Amino acid sequence: QQISRMLMKLFRRARLVKPGQVDPRAAEFTLSLLVAMYDRSGTGYVKTRSAAAALISLSGDTLLAKYRAFFQFYAVSDGKESLITRSALRSLLTDLNQIPAIVGEGCTMSCVEIAIHDCFHGVLNAAIAEEKFLSWLRSEPAVLLWLPTCYRLSATEMVSHQARCR
User: What is the mean pLDDT, run by run of 10 residues, along the chain of 166 residues?
Assistant: First the structure.
């Protein structure tokens, strides 16, 4: 219910900003997608953080903005700074991998574990700072290769060339 209300509010604002470009059923469709991805057992419960990760990844924002938002949602504070732990990264990657999984392109837990190991390679601490996390994401880890690929595809949709084809 809470996510449904939030989606209705979000898409109502989007319709005001872009009149005629947002389907009136966008909130309903998005909620159905989130439920299909994160509530496969039919409990009626979707974690807010999981829904936020999906909405961030499917947004039209830049990759860097998406990566920073992921960090913000999954990091924990140690008093001085925010850090992301192995367990938080596992949650993020598991949540994000529900997106390609919905179209039959999911990855196994072993590839998530490999990605975590890669991200924390050479790190002695239990958690990493935002810059290390962003640097790892910019290297386009295989487990999330779909994310920059989808971003590039959506970015090219707006490109127009003043050339005529024969």
Answer: 93 91 93 94 92 94 95 91 96 94 80 94 92 96 90 80 77
d(CA 72, CA 66): 10
Pick the CATH number of 49-155 from 3.50.50.60, 2.30.110.20, 1.10.238.10, 3.30.70.3090: 1.10.238.10
The pTM of this model reads 0.86
- Residue 82 pairs in a beta bridge with 77
User: Tokens 């039959």 identify what position?
Assistant: 104
CA dihedral 78, 83, 84, 87 (to 10 degrees): -20
Question: Which distant-in-sequence residues (6+ apart) come within 8 Å of 142 by Cβ?
Answer: 111, 115
